[in-house]
């Protein structure tokens, strides 16, 4: 099965709760990634207002500057998260 992000919600700071098509939910903290990676595409994401303005596109979370993270990466760095019903 190809891993896809099917839902995502901003969770404060640089964290996102991501729901995958395999039924798993993960709390993903991207702060270290976007502040340690010096590529220009991640500079905008350091602004929290910009960071929380992501959308679902191309099977993952994306931003207007075309930054994105592979679903597999989000799964790998995320911690299991139980969604409240």
Class per helix and strand makeup: alpha+beta
Indicate the overall shape. Answer: globular
Order of helices and strands: EEEHHEEHE
Distance between the termini: 26 Å
Low-confidence stretches: none
What number of structural domains do the residues give?
A: 1
Strand order of the largest sheet: 1-2-3-6
Determine and state the CATH class: Alpha Beta
- Separate helix tally: 3
* Whole-angstrom Rg: 12 Å
User: Portion of residues in helices?
Assistant: 10-25%
CATH topology: NE0471 N-terminal domain-like
> Judging by the overall fold, what is the CATH architecture?
2-Layer Sandwich
Largest sheet geometry: 4 strands, antiparallel
Oligomer: single chain
Characterization of the model:
The chain has three helices and six strands. The protein is an alpha+beta fold. The protein has a single domain, classed as NE0471 N-terminal domain-like, CATH 3.30.2020. The strands form two sheets. A four-stranded antiparallel sheet has the order 1-2-3-6. Strands 4-5 form a two-stranded antiparallel ribbon. Strand 1 (5-10) and strand 2 (15-20) form a beta hairpin. The radius of gyration is 12 Å and the shape is globular. The N and C termini lie far apart (26 Å). The mean pLDDT is 95.
What attributes characterize this protein structure?
85 residues, alpha+beta, NE0471 N-terminal domain-like, 4-stranded antiparallel β-sheet, two-stranded antiparallel sheet, 20% helix, globular
Task: Set down the secondary structure blueprint.
Layout: E1 5-10, E2 15-20, E3 25-29, H1 31-36, H2 48-51, E4 55-57, E5 60-62, H3 71-77, E6 79-80
Antiparallel strand pairs: 1-2, 2-3, 3-6, 4-5
């Amino acid at each position: 099965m190809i891993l896809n992000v099917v839902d995502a919600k901003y969770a404060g700071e640089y964290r996102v709760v991501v729901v995958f098509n395999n039924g798993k939910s993960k709390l993903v903290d991207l702060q270290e990634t976007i502040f340690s990676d010096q590529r220009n595409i991640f500079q905008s994401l350091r602004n929290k207002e910009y960071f929380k303005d992501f959308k679902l596109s191309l099977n993952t979370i994306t931003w207007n500057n075309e930054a994105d993270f592979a679903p597999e990466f989000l799964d790998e760095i995320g911690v299991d998260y139980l969604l409240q019903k």
